Amino acid sequence: MKKVIYAFGIILVLSNCSSARMVDSWRSQEYNNYKPKKVLIVGVTENLTARKKFESQLKTELKIRGIDAVESYDVFAPTFTSLKQTEEDIEKEVEKISNNGFDAILISAVKGVDEKTTYTGDWYITDYYWRRFGRYYYLYQDVYFDRGYYNKYKIYNIESSLYNLKENNDKSLVWVASYSVVDPSSINTTVNDYVKAIIKSLENEGIINKIN
After folding, report:
1. What is the pLDDT of residues 165-197, one digit of tens each?
2. How many other C-beta atoms are found inside a 10 Å radius of the C-beta of residue 35?
């Protein structure tokens, strides 16, 4: 599953019906009116299936909003992702992409994975329960008898960044946001939720247009 989720490259504590949620974001003041026209979408992952699902769905959402978007697997040569690249090699690739009309790159990658533990039992926070040892012990004694009392899960911390290719320098970062994805069990569902979260973030920042 770690390889599957690495496709995003979204993030989250489960929120309502979504498995993805934005944790934090930053927008450069250098690009208050910036709107990309042709974007290369990059999902950093060794899982080609997951990468294609993510890049394809994000491409569809961006095109709906009038942005020319292209998946990286249609642009990068197989050797670019299968072999470790030097910084010089990457800069050459960026220059080639820019010369082909791209003015932005949106890249997503997993930054880390957190191990979490929760309790399957009910939570009681009423002062009445906390003041009586008998009630408190009665409610939580299952920890001794129920092997499933503790529920362990993983939270994938994913980061998405948008770069302005026309300003290929230390100030080329337009926008970056962190997301959390909680122990996803389905690639399709996770990709769908994560893409929606990215699109919502970009819309709220005014980087892309909202649709009715």
Report:
1. 988 788 899 999 999 887 766 778 888 889 999
2. 16
